Every structure is written in C-alpha cells, then in structure tokens.
Amino acid sequence: MQAIALTSVGAFLLLKAHKHRKKMACPSPVLTLKAVPDVLKKEMFENPHNLARLPIPALEDTAARYLLAVRPLCDDDEFANQEILVNEFTQGAGADLHKKVVDADAKAAASGAYPYSFIEADWDSMYYGLRCPQPINFNPYFAITGLTGGQVSNAAKFVHSFTKWSMRVLKGELPPDAGNCSYGFPKHIGSAKVPKKGMDTLVMYSAEIANVIVICKEQMFSVQVLSADGTLLDVAGLEASLEAVKAMAEAGAGKGAKVQALTSEDRDVWAAARATLEADAANAALLKEIDAGVLVLCLDGKPKDVNDLVEKSDRLLIAPAATRWWDKQQLIVDESGFMGICCEHSYADGTNWGRFIRETMNDALGKADPSGPLPTLLLHTAESAPAPKPLIFKASTDLEVKIAAADSNHTTLTSDLETAVLDFTEFGKNDIKSWNCSPDGAVQLAFQAAYFELHGKPPPVYEACATRKFHHGRTETIRSTTIESKAFIEALKKDAPKAEALAKMQAAAKVHGGNAKNCSSGAGIDRHLTAMASIASKEGIKVPLFEDAKFKYSKSWHLSTSNGTQPYLSMFGFGAVIPEGYGLGYLVDNNNISVVCTSYKSCAATSSTKMADAIAAALRKMKKLV
Q1: Cα separation of 618 and 448, whole Å?
Q2: Number of Cβ atoms within 10 Å of the Cβ of 495
Q3: Among candidates 264, 333, 322, 329, which has minimal Cα distance to 298?
Q4: Do the Cβ atoms of 530 and 122 come closer than 8 Å?
C-alpha cells in the first residue's frame, strides 16, 4: 500500500494583502505550454482580477495556532514539551526560516514571476514530484446525478456540454467566480500530466482540442468532436460515434498494447516507458493526441449490482489499470448510465471541479446557470464527422513486460483498499442548522466521535479548505480536532447530561466555524510550516520541533477529510493518506449526508465498514441532544 500525506482537496495559509503585479510573468516550471492562447496565459499569470497575494502568517501566530491544535492530542507532559519546542523554534531556527520565506516571497512578488505565492513551488513539487502511482494517492472522484438516460446518451450529453464549457474557457469568456482566483480553469483544457524522471509536467494543448479519447473494453479510440472550422458535433452525432466505438471494441478493432495501464505505475517507471514510446514517431503522435484530448471517456460494462454503492465507488476510484488513462480528467459511464468524474488533482481542487460539473450539467439539462449560458456553437452532424479511429501503439517485448507488471502492481495496490459508503438519509443540512451548528462542523464532530468510539483517542484531522480568494490560492488545512471537539466527543462517549453535551457540541462547532473562516482567509497553520520545513530540508538545518514525534503525529492525518458538497453530486471519494488512516469524502445536502470511507485492509486496526457505522451512530446520538 502506498499512501501520502495529501488529500483530494487541499490546505490553507495566512496572508498579507500584497497585490500581484500585472505584468506577464514566467509560467511555472512544471507547466509545458504547447498551444496556449494569450487569453489563457493572461488568466493564469497576469492576475487580471487584481486579487491579493497569499500572505505569510506572523511566526508568532502560526506558533500559537499550532499549540492550540496540538493540545487535544497531548497529555500534560507531552504538551509541556511542545511548548518548550515551539518557544525554542520561534526564538531560534524558526525566526530565521520565517525570514527566508518572507524574503523569497517578496522577491517573487517584486518580479511578478513564479511562484505566485510563498507555498506554490512546494505545492507543485509535491503534486508533480511525488513518485507514487496516480490511483488512490492523487485522483479523487465525484459521482454525478441528473442525467437519466443510458450509457451512450448520458456520455454524449455530458461530453457535448463539457466541450462547450471548454470553448467558453478557451475564448476567455468564463465569468470569474466572485472574488476568487480562476487561474486553474484554463488547465482543464487539452491538458495532461506527463511523467518525467523525478518531476512530472502538465502539458497544455489548449488551442488544439478536437477529440475525445474513449476507452472501451481496454481498447482506446479517438472521436472528433470539434471540426477544423470550430463546429461541434451534435449530441445525436456523438451518440452515433460512441455506438460505433462500442461496436469496434466488441470486434476488437482497437486491440493492441495496453499502454494505458502504464499510467497507473510509479511515475519514474512510467516516465522511462513513455520515453521509449516517444522514440517512435507513430507512438509519439498517439501520445500527443491523447494529451491534447478534451477529456478521456471510459465506457465501462454492466455493473454487477446497480444499487451497490461500493461497486460504484470502486468503479470511479480504483478501476482496472487498462480501463483508464490516469494522467487526464476522465468521465466514466457504465452500461446502466451511472457516471462520474475521476479528477487529475495536480492543478485543480474541489471548487474548480464543482463549478465545471454544475455548468456542464445545467447545459446538458437545458437549465439556467448563475454564470450564464454556455456559448452557442455551430453544429455539425454525424454525416460530416470522421469515423472514430483506434489508437494502437507499437510495443516491444520489453514494453509488454512492463505493461503486464503495471497491471499486476495496480491490482496489488487497489486490492488493499477497503471502501464503505454511508448513505445517511435520516436528516441533513436542514435539520443540523436547527441545532445552532454549522452542517460542516457537525459532520466533522461526528467523524471525530466515530474515531473516538473505535480507537479510544481523538485523531489528527485534515479538512480541506479553499483559499481561492487569493491569487493562485488553492487550499489550507483545517485541523478539525480542537480542545472543544475533544471535550464534546468525551461527553458524548460517557453519555453526559443532554444539556451539557449539547452546549459542548455547539461550542465545538462554533470554534470549528471560526477556524474554517480563518483558514479561508489565510490564517492557517500548515502551509506556513511546510514552507519553513522545505527551506530547512534544502539547507540542512536541523529543527528539533520538526523532528519531534508528537509534531509529526499531529500532521499524520488519521482522518483525511473533504467536504465536496455541490449540485449534481451523489458521492465523493479518495484514498486514505496514511496506512492506518481513513479517507472521508462527504456531501451534506438538505436531507441527507453521503460519506465515502476508505482505509486499507493491510491495517488490522482500521475498518471502513465499522467507521461508516460509527459515523451514522454518532449522527443519531447528536440529534438526540437537541
């Protein structure tokens, strides 16, 4: 099992209100711009909406917030030691490291060049530099509801509308989210994460998008959706093309080397294999066509049980290696019509995904969207569209051996994942609001109460929080376990009097809400600590606080959580980030709560099924307090 300390939607930082300079600046070193129009470069690099630069917290503020966050994870002696270490840090190495972070950020801000925040380079190094496989470790998913047709109908409608959305972005016509940075949206257009030895790159062919890459029965095909003159294949034409792909796949027309399995591999292994492929001109052209695709569409077979939520979750998160291209955004649709998006996480987070799904679905359903309609494009029909073509790679015997090894490694990795899906329909957001608690805060308390019930102690918790109000802002960590939440889960466990437990629940939810607000405004902990730790590592500076076992434990994220609530979503899932942890992707809707729990079978101490049951039990106990 490979798991890494990152969740499927991010972390936060403290900020000071610098304004980013408006001049065109150098792109990120992890970006490879092949065909990107100036209008997209402006959105990505010029700060056209004049947003503040992500500020750097005062060292003393980060230290104080860290001590508050670590207190519920410590006994008295452990906390006394933390206070000593933090004091030594702020008076010694920390002061020097903080100054280095500030100075480096000021230099970047003055130049108007990358990095556009004090954490961006470290964040990119994580997403593009980690060598572990994409599945489970990086790529989260959203299950999508709303379209009620079959496989081909649903796929065609979504692809048609998503292509319109892509053209809206490509033309520079996407209205900005109010007060939020939009630099991530252009990276959805004709992009792919391409493996390179030691550090991957995001290749962008935005202006060349024309085809959708379709995987069916472990065979790959290319379907043209945009003609050379910019007209869009109509929905009926797309349906015809997809039916043709299914017939071709049934006949084995696309059978060949299952190169797509390599995208599930260790990144350096895949980088070496891809370099071998690219040495052949025909293979290189196929790879370029895939990289430049609008998206990857996976047409899966029949589900064993259309009502099995775990089967649905596994389909979107850990499907067989040769049925996916893990380096790109993928729309997955099975023969029942069930569909979802498996997201490539290196360049985007939950609020970006939620917006394009909402706008695409509203267009597909003919509904109005708050951001206005997608562009009206001239259409062409199936008669004037080229036939789908199979993408068949040339592969040596050595490469075939590597493909087989990739498939085997992927099976080993994914077979260790245990998933349970809680579809809690007894109440939802509407009821929770009447408790004088925020819905998100209440669900976070239920998670902690469940963990406490199963494991007897409060967990280190990561909750993703968006920082998009800042230029190139992504996420910050809400450390959801607090002194107040610990007091509440202990009161709930011992069946304290209702009035006492209710008061503690409301107090804990209030503190959680305040922490979330601080994080979204830049007053977090972990991005600042990460930036300082990065410099210490690069310069060989020994920092006792960073080497301390309790410090490390406090950010070991036994609960890695993210709230993905958006329209048209029914499930949200990703992998746990440590071997002994849980991944909890959740949606809090008006009358129901969905939680996808993941953990690893190789850890005897954890159980996704028990965790899901314990969360449901905690929610019921919490409601009885009101």
Answers
A1: 9
A2: 9
A3: 333
A4: yes
